[in-house]
Design brief:
With 299 residues, this protein is an alpha+beta fold. The protein has 2 domains: 147 residues, 2,3-Dihydroxybiphenyl 1,2-Dioxygenase, domain 1, CATH 3.10.180; 131 residues, 2,3-Dihydroxybiphenyl 1,2-Dioxygenase, domain 1 (Roll). The protein is built from 6 helices and 16 strands. An 8-stranded mixed β-sheet has the order 2-3-4-1-5-8-7-6. An 8-stranded mixed β-sheet has the order 10-11-12-9-13-16-15-14. The radius of gyration is 18 Å and the shape is globular.
Length: 299
């Protein structure tokens, strides 16, 4: 029997390194609406793709800057961040330490935000796992001190009909062991293990799907990202859209598109009745799977 999940996704991070402009153009071509460029007090820049209560973040580093956010500089290109929501970063830090998980003391930072022509300051506090805890990438918890400057309904309308982030696919040689580690960190006992090759954590309205390399290649064929030398890695983001056929058509139109930095590699034709459509963002080392809208249990 599965318990009710309490952990909540805050956002998933795609690291563009020094190619934020090209990456932002790529996501716009896919039909996402991006927020204006933000500038963190830590030395990074970002764009957000907002949904109801969570978001997809495109983060990068400004060329020529004297202060660079080192954790971004030292991270992998592509999907490299999984962020849970917390109401109290200090309390979450204490829980992680008590559980034997190495984490950093909460860190505060800011980002100016333009709200209807008026500059506001979005403030955050995060506690981050030590880099050695999980091979796949940066995993941390974010406390929004000013959520009203981040979660705004006017930013959730996407031309491609994207409605929410549904799932993050994590590739590991031992999916069950990896899933148990993530469950400990997220404070969740909601874990299913249908087979040695596959385990899943069902968070509130978002899943973490753990599969091995063979299952990953079976699921996505040639449209896969590379491990970048990691024992485990974030293999795909699953996005729910309101009209899958329209997303098929959009990707078909982009199949031949070739950017100097980020190439869109999409299926060569739409398959009638297919349950999803997948795109590989070439040099950005990112796989996105689009699925049709499904009914939600909480609706």
């Amino acid at each position: 029997m599965m318990n009710t999940a309490t952990s909540t996704l805050d956002h998933v991070v795609v690291n563009a390194m020094f190619e934020t402009d090209a990456a932002a153009s790529c996501f716009e071509l896919l039909g996402f609406a991006l927020t204006p460029r933000g500038y963190h007090s830590l030395g990074s820049v970002n764009h957000l793709m907002m949904f109801d209560g969570h978001y997809l973040e495109l983060v990068g580093l400004p060329p020529g800057a004297t202060t660079l956010r080192r954790e971004i500089l030292e991270s992998r290109l592509g999907v490299d961040g999984l962020v849970f929501k917390t109401d109290d970063a200090q309390e979450t830090y204490a829980r992680l330490i008590d559980a034997g998980v190495r984490a950093s003391e909460p860190q505060s930072f800011t980002r100016p935000v333009d709200i209807k022509g008026v500059e506001q300051i979005a403030r955050f506090r995060t506690t981050r796992l030590a880099a050695e805890e999980l091979s796949a990438g940066r995993v941390y918890f974010c406390e929004h001190l000013t959520p009203e400057w981040v979660f705004r309904a006017e930013w959730t309308k996407h031309p491609n009909g994207a409605r929410r982030l549904k799932e993050c696919v994590i590739v590991s040689d031992d999916p069950q062991l990896e899933a148990r580690r993530y469950a400990l960190i997220a404070g969740e006992s909601v874990l299913t293990s249908p087979s040695f090759h596959h385990s899943r954590i069902a968070l509130r309205d978002f899943d973490l799907d753990f599969i091995d390399g063979a299952a990953y290649r079976t699921r996505y064929g040639d449209l896969v990202c590379h491990a970048a030398g990691r024992e485990s890695y974030f293999g795909a983001i699953v996005v729910e859209v309101s009209d899958l056929a329209a997303m098929h058509a959009r990707l078909d139109a982009l199949t031949s598109h070739d950017e100097s930095v980020v190439r869109l590699i999409a299926p060569t034709h739409a398959q009638s009745g297919a349950s999803s459509v997948v795109v590989l963002l070439g040099e950005l080392n990112t796989v996105i799977e689009f699925i049709g809208a499904v009914e939600h249990a909480h609706a």
